[in-house]
Known about the structure:
Largest sheet: 4 strands, mixed
GO molecular function: transferase activity
Order of helices and strands: HHHEEHHHHHHHHHHHHHHHHHHHHEHEEE
Protein name: Glycosyltransferase
Distance between the termini: 85 Å
Strand content: 5-15%
Strand order of the largest sheet: 3-4-6-5
Transmembrane segments: 6-28, 98-120, 191-208, 214-232, 239-259, 294-311, 318-337, 343-362, 374-393, 417-438, 450-472
Number of domains: 3
Number of strands: 6
Pfam families: PMT_2
InterPro entries: RgtA/B/C-like
Amino acid sequence: MKPVRLPASAVLALPRWALFALAMLYILPGVIGREPWKNDDAASFGIMWTMAHGTWQDWLWPNIAGMSMPEEGPLMFWLGALCIKLFGGFLGDVLAARIATIGVFLLGVLSLWYATFNLGRRPEAQPLKLAFGGQPEPDDFGRTLADAALLIYLGCLGFLQHGHETTAEPLLTALLALTLYRSVRYMEKPCWRNAALIGLALGLMTLTRGWVPPAFVLVALFICTRFLAVPAGKALPHLLASLGVAAAVTLPWLVPTLIAQPYGQAPVAAWNTWNMAQLALPSLRPLQIFVRDGVWFFWPAWPFALWAAYAWRRQNNLLHIVVPTTFVAVSIVMLLMHPAPEHAQLLMLVPPLAIMAAFGLLTVQRGAINAIDWFSVMVLTLCAAMLWLFWYAQLTGWPPKPAHNVLRLVPGYVPEVNWLALVVAAAATLGWFLLVHWRVSRRPSVLWRAVVLSSGGVILIWILWMTLFLPLTNYNKSYATVARQAAAVLPPDTDCVTSNAGPAQRASFAYFGKLPFNSMDHAQCRLLLWQDYTRGVRSDPPGNWTLLWEGRRVSERSERFRLFRRTAP
Length: 569
């Protein structure tokens, strides 16, 4: 027997305008006004910027001012570079590149919503009929489940961390959500058209982050067809067709790159080597990372998803259980087979976990929901209050201890009041208290009541951080200041700079400092940007060099940059 009894009053859907406003409140903070931060965010922007201001060879060979970046794939960088081409002239290159991030985010949330909606309106997913009627209509039930899945998706802490970056990970997550949606449509109606659309999504995933994730997704699809009794004579040809379409989607990059060999490089061979390095025998280290990081990465999805697996354990042949559960299981196997898993592997679990969690909400007891709500209210309100306190302290110096704790992390930073950001932060805080008042006073019976406070609180914390503390975070995590310092001492006749700097540092010095890194570093460059660390053994460049400048980010005491001019032996 199905474990769900639900009255029609519990399936009140959120207004469409409210969902759209919530999505914009989620994605716009952290996109507007944010500089490329160190590590992957800056490195990915560097590839986009190089493509947008380079030649056709840069579009075939992802690189940062001549530094080869064969990992992942070119699709996200193409999108960012195209946005820089179209909008960089009046938005600036950084904000223009982040338009691609906004588009990718919208693709992901729409795909997740429609995947859950189609699962929720199916006959086998409907709650039991009540004795005197009053059960919800299938479409209303599906909409409410989709709203709940979207709220859980937006509340996941791991996605919040990565969803605002210019990296390939947000696009991989969005395309997995799209693949989930197309898989649901295929299981409902196995046909060549749906198989081809699955292949299109898999091909785009391949161009985004290699062929390993699509390969595991194909395995998940095959397992789903076995559980859902799709005839093998139909499923196997369709899956082969999906594989063929996916391969065809990658050809517009693979074939020209193999033929042209941009800058004399072989990016496809390096890309394939990177893909192969992601596969190994399962070991203990990935399991430790999954358990250690997953507790916070998948919150608040994982408790509800686990409950869904338990509550629906007797209905293990239903579409709304088989598809998300299979995708979660296969993604975990892929994670365990990675010798050094990254958060990209964890992100692949977020969309199916959000769908599972939405179905888990159906059977959660009221007492558990109230406990989660009070936990969310207390913890998130306390976090918001602490952010306001530290913001006030850094401006006024009172209370002295919080002010000291903030400013000692960023020596040299001068706090200023951005009145527009202050108004946005105050409005978000007021909205949070109105949301809590509505939840406590009305005690709504709607299905998504269990996650609205968790998701709303996470969005509040993000808005406060990206308004009140955005200048401080840019100062702390960006290489803009040190790059401009190096540019100020650059000789006027400089035409070539060689460097050992990492991807994020090279991208930042090329963009902010306009250092003319050579496309293929060689010994003829007269200037050298040398990155090393002050702790441990001193590292000096080989050869004869004269020091022109030395600097570092104020928040990073061990990392150091030095600019040298070549001298005669």
